[in-house]
Amino acid sequence: MSQTNGIGGSHAVSEKPQTRIALDSKIIAITGANRGIGLGIANSCLDNGAAHVYSIDIGDTGDDFLAVQKRFPGKLHALKADVTSEETVTEAVDQIVKEHGAIHGMVVNAGRTKHKPALDFTTEEINQLWSINLYGAFYCARVAARAFIKCGVKGSVVFTASMASYRPNKRVPSAPYGASKAGVRNMTHTLAMEWAQYNIRVNSVSPGLVNTAMTYWVPQQEDWPQQLKYYGGMPRLAEVEELGGAYVYLLSDAASYTTSIDIPVNGVIGIC
């Protein structure tokens, strides 16, 4: 059976397109998911039927992680790895494949942020940001792609970018951070082009202001109500779980023809 592709050719239809957004039976890895945004994504994936979710993180798990584990017995796991070391990430992914026979999605989420004037950044601080946000992101995506190809899986890579990749935050600028996340979005488009031949999709999500341990201070500012009027949009920070739907969609088979895009999740507040 064949179907016209709309540009004068045809292709074999091997399977029916999926219309249901779900992660049934999928094995998902998320870097930096011991807490914060990554853990929120893990929770959303499990809520939407993922068979197993692995956090690949250099740190230890905490009470929040244990609470999600309790909700989904035997489905949320933690593996230690340093995303700036491609070798350790490869070992983690190899372990996942060994345990389950495949891996279907990789959320490249681990990141670092620091806000200060550009003239005040030290070389060490810049290297710390870029080693995790850029080099680590590239390594993790490449490890996942190799695993997808080896397993014969139509895999999905989803990067966590940032609204800072579009424009700076006037209140707390960070040129190295914004540049690293802009690099992630460019990487998304380039890898999507390169890996389409392997049926690997590559996309990204750009959160705006999110309520995490790194942003606790934001609503504590005396002029926060005035800032919200200035920013416009929804007058609050996002909760981590509110980002999950974008990741779930991009990881799901319902997004089988969605690649090389970025989804801003910013409540219109974004970064101005």
UniProtKB/TrEMBL annotation:
Signal peptide: none annotated. InterPro entries: NAD(P)-bd_dom_sf, Sc_DH/Rdtase_CS, SDR_fam. Gene3D superfamilies: NAD(P)-binding Rossmann-like Domain. GO terms for molecular function: oxidoreductase activity, acting on NAD(P)H, oxygen as acceptor; oxidoreductase activity, acting on the CH-OH group of donors, NAD or NADP as acceptor. The keyword Oxidoreductase applies. Transmembrane segments: none annotated. Keywords: NADP, Oxidoreductase. PANTHER family: BENZIL REDUCTASE (PTHR43008), CHAIN DEHYDROGENASE, PUTATIVE (AFU_ORTHOLOGUE AFUA_4G08710)-RELATED (PTHR43008:SF4). Belongs to the short-chain dehydrogenases/reductases (SDR) family. This is NAD(P)-binding protein. It comes from Zasmidium cellare ATCC 36951. The lineage of its organism: Eukaryota, Fungi, Dikarya, Ascomycota, Pezizomycotina.
